[in-house]
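Practice problem: predict the structure.
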Amino acid sequence: MEVFRRYGFDKTMFLTTLILLVLGSLMVMSASGVFAERTYGQKLFFFTQQIVMAVAAMALVMVLLRIRKPFYKSPVFIIGLLALTVALLLVALVLPPVAKTNRWIVFSGVRFQPSELAKISLVLFLAWFLDKKREKIGEIKVLLIPIGVVVLCAALIAREPDFGTAVLLLAMSMIVLFLGGVRLKYFVWMGLAITPPLIYFLISAPYRLNRVQAFLSPQAAAENLTFQVTQSKFAVGAGGIFGVSFGESVQKMLFLPCSHTDFIYAIIAEEFGLMGTLLVIGLFAVLVWRGVQISIKAPDYFSQLAAAGLTLFLGFQVLLNITVVLGLAPAKGVPLPLISYGRSSLLCVLLAIGLLLHISQRRGDGRSPA
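Answer:
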């Protein structure tokens, strides 16, 4: 038996999300102003776009919180969302490239990145499949379907090309499978099968090897290979303990590429210093902690796996983005959730949080809310 408590959602997660949204919008305004004015003639161009999407996505979250039925567990919804994701990934590959990649669906001037939706649809599909086949999950033939779906989505994303997101998707999916009870020995076989294609994709494009080279040997790498990370480190170092103050970043003056997207954390470090970066990390830690609590208290096995997977989706992106900004990992092009500019990322992250909040409203009979 399940008990649905409307507006009994996790208030801590909701409030933390709002704080990160406000902080992210302010940082997009600060980090993008110079680039936006030079490119579009409007200093607040990216800030306006981000605000519009934030309002629309939060409206969607509020709709999700009012739905009484556990729609996210419906096979029709799960399979339909997965099919839509695969279809969009295929369409993106045949559309004219944008910035020399096929990562976006462009319609009436609005761009959407299907790989962001793939993270959510795969988590829900894997949770549904593992719950449905719970008694047979130890059989390798049963695992062929979820593994095939994961590999298909990862291959389509790698083909765009977006190698970093493909690897993130594989890693996240493997952890969900592990949480679902898949034996460790199967991961050895999966690793042996997946490694050759990953190596092929890595060496098939020189720029990927260049990124790895720049990470492993930054002093020996050519200057243009380490420029972005070097400028990012300059920004982080310039911030000191308390930062140079809001809006006073130097690196955003076209010195640091992608300062309002993938490297916005560096601008936070420059303008708010170590204290600002620790605040951001603390807020994300709260978000992940509440996600874990929602997973633990979820009323059924499917909801537990889905909540855990969605929390991993958020936590992994935060970890990867920050390690890249600090030069602790090769550049991957992964945005910082709720902070970086990007309408597709913002929409899908808030959709994931909306699902988590919806799950937090559902309790097994006799359980008390968080």
